[in-house]
Amino acid sequence: HVIKNVNLETVCGITSALPENIHPEVAFAGKSNVGKSSLINALMNRKSYARTSQQPGKTQTINFYNINDEIYFVDLPGYGYAKVSNEIKAKWGRMIENYLQRSKQLRLVFLLIDIRHEPSQNDRHMYRWIVENGFYPVIIATKADKIKRSQLSKQLKLIKNTLDVAEGTPVVAFSALSKQGRDEIWDLIETYALN
Ligand code: GTP
Ligand code: MG
User: What range(s) does the EngB-type G domain occupy (predicted)?
Assistant: First the structure.
């Protein structure tokens, strides 16, 4: 996919009104530090336009990246970030839910899971939400460079089994270092969000 321009167009905090965009939106959900912002950079062919950090809890707002005046990538705050109070966690949870429920342009929700770990309760909850709300589920298994090639299929199976995914659900191994999986993810965006 040719990236002509990218622009962080809207940043929403807990009290902001959501934008009424006219182009399709693709959202990136997953726990803190799983690699949402890094995946967005890889898809945009930008090194660090979306801010990333080794510390979990980097993205604390809903960030709308306008790509080519054609589509928006929506970078969500991670869930399960331990360092903030329960009150703040609940507010972020409501902010994310509110966006996912109300956006009129949301076409696709990617659920990111660290390839090394068994999906958590929160991950299972998010997966169910995606399916129950009629979105086509796509799982991205992130940080694929952190495991041996020989472990790949075992880890993908663990993710599929724990989330209890429907037959045929795409589970794409991705690495922000090697860019493994990037083209396949763009293909899914073209198929499910741009048509
Ligand atoms: P929050 O905004 O806190 O929810 O995190 P996030 O999901 O946006 O994660 P982010 O993209 O900031 O990445 C977190 C850390 O993981 C950073 O140090 C990244 O460099 C690292 N990381 C992300 N993707 C990969 C990957 O594919 N491979 C490796 N080795 N590291 C990665
Ligand atoms: Mg982030």
Answer: 22-195
Which residue's structure tokens are 């890889």?
42
Amino acid present at 35:
G
CATH class, domain 6-192, is: alpha beta
- Ligand 1 atom nearest 60 alpha carbon: 2
What is the ipTM for the molecules in this complex? 0.99
pLDDT score, position 175 = 98
> What's the CA-to-centroid distance between 26 and ligand 1, angstroms?
18
For residue 72 the two structure tokens come to: 């928006």
**Which segments within 1-105 are labelled E, that is strand?**
6-12, 25-30, 62-67, 71-75
What's the Cα-to-Cα distance from 192 to each of 14, 33, 34, 80, 126, rounded to whole Å? 29, 26, 23, 28, 19
Residue 81: pLDDT band with limits 50, 70, 90: confident
pLDDT value at position 113? 98
